[in-house]
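As agreed, record passed on underneath.
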Amino acid sequence: MKSNRFILIILMAVMVYGANFWGTSIYILDEAKNAGCAMEMWQEENWIVPYFNNELRTDKPPLHYYFMMGAYQAFGVSPFSARLFSVLAGVLLVAVVYFFVRKIVHEQAAFWSSITLIASLQMAIQFHLAVPDPYLILFFTTGLLGFYVGVTTQQKKYIYLFYVCTALAFLSKGLIAIVFPGLIILIFWLFTGGITWARLKEIQLLPGVLLFLIIAAPWYIAVGIKTQGVWLEGFFLHHNLQRYATTMEGHGGFFGLPFLIIIGATLPLSLFFVQAVKGTWQNRKQQPFLFFCLTVVGVVALFFTFSKTILPSYPAPAVPFFAIMLGVWLANRLKVSQTNRADFLVLTIHLVIAISIPVTAHIALQQEATLAALAPLSFLLLILPLSATLSILFWNKARQLACGFLIGGWIGVSLIFFWILNPALDEHNPIYASAGVLDETTTVYYKAMNPAFVFARKETIASATVEEIEILLRTKKKLVVITRQQYQSDLNHLPLDVIYCTKDLFENRVSCVLKSW
């Protein structure tokens, strides 16, 4: 039975995280730049210095680039290759959560913790993207769970797993891979007996730090030498410290937003967060593992609460630990047959949320002129209020079945999104429309362009002035010029036909593609 449940969990993770991950364009900004940077490094056999469209890219360390480069080598440059290892990271994360929760708590808790994670729409989207976050989440979670098992069982292999995973997380996203574990361990120790010499000896600090440096330091040293410190300055000062201290790219927030993001990311079970958090705190001495998970959630959420720049992906490393808290709570709740008003209050709130989602989707699609024809697809999301209603009806009579409806509705929404809604949306972005236009044609951009064109063309795209475009028109029979609508008038006097001008999805900018014949 245990083995069958694990197989079921893995199959569900593959089904959700692997759903049509190859079937849509590399389009959104982060994906376009990360996948494009890895493509450029792979084409130039460059393993040290990240470049995007021939410009130094200091945004991220290299680990996710390496995985993408390996996939490009095996399968060629495509959305499938760019996202493949993100999907595998998600499946492996579910397996890691199941393994450690079963080892620390019990098999029932492991099952529901994993299911809670799989039901998270935000996590499903995260593991469909060609970005570094899937790798950070995987290694951060594996490392901290390994740490907890290592110090509670005195098994050094798990302690060393922590240092290896922390080094890989540092190569995935940078400083937070060190800051978060340090704060989490410090706070957890302060609440559970204090910092002692014995505890410091337990964690193999000196050999562990050495192992960390052996794995993580060489690339940072190499990129610092190759760029004469420019990459290190750009990454650590601009993309770490400045991003935390100032609002960048319009991604601000409000106090407490990370807590709401974590709750939203673990719907529907997160609506029971009051019961789960209350039980964890009251039993923190009897159940130190759940208190450890609560510490992780609290540290990550509080850290980003004070950040001036916030994106939905920032608190994501805390999501697996919150899923564990909720999964353990649900496993214990299912053992108690009696019902209470709090359960039905939560289920009613969930029903209201479930009804609002298809309604909101319908309104949002209608408000986008190019997407209005897709509004009827929002009716597919009625699976959510239907499953929410069934969960209420069966809560007293068959609670496990009710939980199946509760969670199954969200898994169904994920599958509908990836197989139907997202591909339909993708057909209305300018990158999809450019298919066939950029092939085997000299292509330049004027002043600005959507970065996704680089990946779509599978090579860098040079910038050109009006004078340079005029010269190219005299020497090239076919020329494609990409620009923004606001700059198009500068080119009106040139013999260029407008192939299309298409509004970037859910943005105010309009991408234009012009071509000479």
In short: The longest helix spans residues 399-426.
